[in-house]
Amino acid sequence: MAVFEGNFTQTGTMKFAFVIGRFNDLVTTKLLAGAQDCLKRHGIDTDPAGSQVDYAWVPGSFEVPMVARQLAISGRYSAIICLGAVIRGQTPHFDYVAAEVAKGIAATSLQTGVPVVFGVLTTDSMQQALERAGIKSNLGWSYAMSALEMASLMPQVFSGKANAANNGVMFGTQTASLPTAAD
Ligand code: INI
């Protein structure tokens, strides 16, 4: 039998996409910077002109799952990192946006088999959000770590081989069984 476990060392062939909400971009740009720092320090070229990381900006967290799903279906990525900041206001709007983005990201991951990281802060105040986006710690860093781990783990799970040599490679032929854009 086998132990399937991700690692953080064989990152040369990995490809990632970020989907980032512009709403509350004071927070989301800081989450992005933290995540990029983590990827860079694990050997990944985060330059948008390079071959390892793509970036998609969307108006707000509500739109994040739609774009994440299309990117996942493309089969081009080892993992997708979704970043957003949903901050409670005076109305119930927060609850609708937070619920939909969480459900949408979970569904995208489950339906496609591509790891989709839930990097959306849901906080009661801007202060709480900023504390988690760099003032105290930067959760963007942790979200990138989750992406690296899952990008390394999933090929092992798919192949049934622990520490498979194809660590982190996108799912290649397995995209044939993914839902299509028309689904
Ligand atoms: N989008 C966010 O990412 N965070 C929020 O806090 C937020 N609030 O509170 O309204 C928010 N709203 C915009 C939403 O995500 C959509 O972009 C908009 O409704 C258009 O579909």
UniProtKB/TrEMBL annotation:
InterPro entries: LS, LS/RS, LS/RS_sf. The active site is at H93 (proton donor). Its EC number is 2.5.1.78. Pathway: Cofactor biosynthesis; riboflavin biosynthesis; riboflavin from 2-hydroxy-3-oxobutyl phosphate and 5-amino-6-(D-ribitylamino)uracil: step 1/2. It comes from the Bacteria. It holds the Pfam family DMRL_synthase. GO terms for biological process: riboflavin biosynthetic process. GO terms for cellular component: cytosol; riboflavin synthase complex. Keywords: Riboflavin biosynthesis, Transferase. 5-amino-6-(D-ribitylamino)uracil binds at F23, S61, F62, E63, A85, V86, I87, F118. Catalyzes the formation of 6,7-dimethyl-8-ribityllumazine by condensation of 5-amino-6-(D-ribitylamino)uracil with 3,4-dihydroxy-2-butanone 4-phosphate. This is the penultimate step in the biosynthesis of riboflavin. This is 6,7-dimethyl-8-ribityllumazine synthase. It comes from Phormidesmis priestleyi Ana.
